[in-house]
Amino acid sequence: MAMxxxxxxxxxxxxxxxxxxxxxxxxxxxxxxxxCVIAIPASHLASLVVKVGNSSGCDTDKFAAFGLTKVPxxxxxxxxxxECFANLECKVTDTRFVNxxxxxxxxxxxxxxxxxxxxxxTLHHHGYGKFVIDGRNxxxxxxxx
Amino acid sequence: MAMxxxxxxxxxxxxxxxxxxxxxxxxxxxxxxxxCVIAIPASHLASLVVKVGNSSGCDTDKFAAFGLTKVPxxxxxxxxxxECFANLECKVTDTRFVNxxxxxxxxxxxxxxxxxxxxxxTLHHHGYGKFVIDGRNxxxxxxxx
Lengths: 145, 145
Known about the structure:
Two copies of one chain form a homodimer. The first copy, chain A, is an alpha+beta fold. Chain A has helices at residues 25-33, 46-53, 62-65, 98-101, and strands at 6-10, 15-19, 35-40, 70-71, 80-81, 86-94, 103-113, 123-127, 130-139.
């Protein structure tokens, strides 16, 4: 599925939260399997992301339909997506917020990056097919480092 | 404070989740007052954001120290920040995830935008003073609209 609502929760051990609507086919799968891969597409994959988001796993094998490459994960059953520059193998660690908010808490077990992929500009979803693409990087002096 | 971990949770009524570390001075204030304003700075305010993030309300009046403009809110006690192009008046509606995850659930009571501010490119925090600034906008055909 295409997912846009997510955030960091903790650095170490790395945790994320994400919202997967109970209207999505993936919701049942995620709740049952308690694991997933979060694959991060660069901007050149934008139209593919929309296609993935506008179809459903209930009647479509999205890997086959959209020509995506299944790459075996190290620690979870779901596949990594070969076309994505980063992939996070995740385990659902807390489902107490699912019924009320559709919020899943995820532990990141392993993170992959494809060093050969030069374009790492990410997509930010503004809704209804609108996205903004990462632009300029800046580095400011910060107390943190 | 400067905050970078947040996500949408629901469209209607609008809800957000955010992570505010219990190491931050703002944590106690947010938990006690149960309301806040999320002010969204455009990219030209990046160095100001870092200054706000690298100081603490425990010994600094940040509005005064950084020359920020206090604008009265309509429904909460905290001020809007006049320099930010968007301001969200929020109420904390659920603190059950605070102790374990520092996650606050927020209802957005009112959203303000400054139509006079042309630059609405936002900042995405990559950590340690690194940010990426919004670049190009794209619009793809989506089933949603």
